[in-house]
Amino acid sequence: MSEQTLFNVAVVGATGAVGEQIIRLLSERDFPIKSLKLLSSARSAGTKIPFKGQELTVEEATPDSFKGVEIALFSAGGDVSRALIPHAVQHGAVCIDNTNAYRMDPDTPLVVPEVNIDQISGHRGIIANPNCSTIQMVAALKPLYDRYGISRVIVSTYQAVSGAGAKAIDEMLRQSREILDGNDPKPDILPVASLPVKHRIAFNAVPQIDKFQDNGFTLEEMKMVNETKKIMGDDSIQVTATCVRVPVVYGHSESVYVELKQDYDLGEVKALLADAPGVVLVDDPDRQLYPLASEAAGKNEVFVGRLRRDLSNPRALNLWIVSDNLLKGAAWNAVQIAEYIAIPQA
Ligand code: NAP
Ligand code: 3JN
Predict the structure, then answer these.
(1) Which residues neighbour 233 within 8 Å (Cβ) at sequence distance 6 or greater?
(2) Is 1 a member of any domain?
(3) What is the mean pLDDT of residues 288-308?
(4) Could you tell me the distance, in angstroms and rounded to a whole number, from the CA of residue 179 to the centre of ligand 2?
(5) Which atom of ligand 1 approaches the CA of 129 most closely?
(6) 15 lines ligand 1 (CB under 6 A)
(7) Ligand 1 close to Cβ of residue 327 (< 6 A)
(8) Is the CB of 132 under 6 A from ligand 1?
(9) What is the CATH number of the domain that holds 67?
(10) Is residue 188 part of a domain?
(11) Following DSSP, what letter does each residue of 257-295 receive, concatenated?
């Protein structure tokens, strides 16, 4: 049997909600690691994190952190990626970036392995992980695109607070307790930590994820529009998104209207989705079976159900897509890409 090649790996944002899941997946999947470097800001430097029976000490991420690193997984926000990835690439690392920093860069592949893994061969040191809401949608739409073609997508999301980081989870839980105790909590983090106006998330639905753009859409909505076209390799797909934060901890849900380019058979659509890699069909209305965030949480797959022909357009289909935003939406998609780089595929 041939010896497996081992890699020097770095995780940037190791103390965050996404970083925690990346570290767990690297351990559970026995990723071929020679050394693992855990990096964060100076705030968390010195924190101990267990990894495969060892205690690893988190270090502050600096341009010199990447000497000898071969694979670096970034989830510390776009500014950190923009500042450090060029240094990591210069040191020879392949960087898998979970942030928005390089997603629309024409030289950077934007990859969902089930959809466009062929794109990674063209990388120049950076491979971008799409936004969580985009990943789960394109994973489900790809088999329909391949069979029928897609002309239009209209999506409304119901996004979990974990998408906004560990502090947003704490805020939602704290507000819920305070409201149940009869108090009126002051919002502090959501919808956007850096903006002055805040809204309550507990017992609420907030139609703003990230900052508003000049066209009236939010940045999260525009990420869904632009990333979908890039990943599918088809600028002609028309996409409109409305992104909403809901008081769920883990798991983004999406109501999707998709207009196909050809007539379709609903039974065939179900068969295509049932066979699609990384997708699980949960669609049995008679038994009230459909995807739920509570059941998708902690799982790597994308769950699809509520499939029905649209009433206004017989070539269109309505569906409900759910996935764990920190797993397939971030950490698992990134580790899958890392596995394609590190492990020769059969
Ligand atoms: P989080 O829980 O707030 O964690 C942020 C992490 O970034 C922490 O480890 C933090 O370290 C680190 N960090 C912050 N500033 C840093 C700096 N200047 N230098 C080095 N490390 C720094 O956030 P999260 O939910 O894990 O998300 C992190 C990022 O991942 C997001 O900003 C986003 O870009 C990306 N993300 C992507 C998706 C997706 O859709 N693919 C989903 C969620 C998040 P400290 O402990 O030292 O503060
Ligand atoms: O809010 C969500 O549910 C997903 C958030 C993703 C996110 C949060 C902060 C910064 C991103 C992202 O991945 O697009 C970024 C960013 O990298 O710009």
Answers:
(1) 116
(2) no
(3) 98
(4) 28
(5) 41
(6) yes
(7) no
(8) yes
(9) 3.40.50.720
(10) yes
(11) EEEESS---HHHHHHHHHHSTTEEE--BGGGTB---HHH
Same domain, 334 and 319: no
CB-ligand 1 contact for 323 (6 Å cutoff): no
Residue 63 lies in a domain: yes
Are residue 124 and residue 140 in the same domain, yes or no?
no
pLDDT in tens, 248-296: 999 999 999 999 999 999 999 999 999 999 999 999 999 999 999 999 9
The band of 120, judged by pLDDT with boundaries at 50, 70 and 90, is very high
**CB–CB of 40/20 below 8 Å?**
no
195 in the same domain as 284: yes
| Percent residues over pLDDT 70 in the chain | 99
Across the range 33-61, mean pLDDT stands at 98
Is residue 301 scored above 70 in pLDDT? Answer: yes
Q: In the annotation, is 132 catalytic?
A: yes
Which residues span the domain enclosing 286? 134-324
Is 252 one of the annotated active-site residues of the chain? yes
Distance from chain centroid for Cα 223? 12
217 and 231 belong to one structural domain: yes
In order of 115, 144, 273, 290, the CA distances from 112 in angstroms are 5, 16, 16, 24
CA distance 161 to 181: 21
Which one of the ligands is nearest to 42 CA? 1
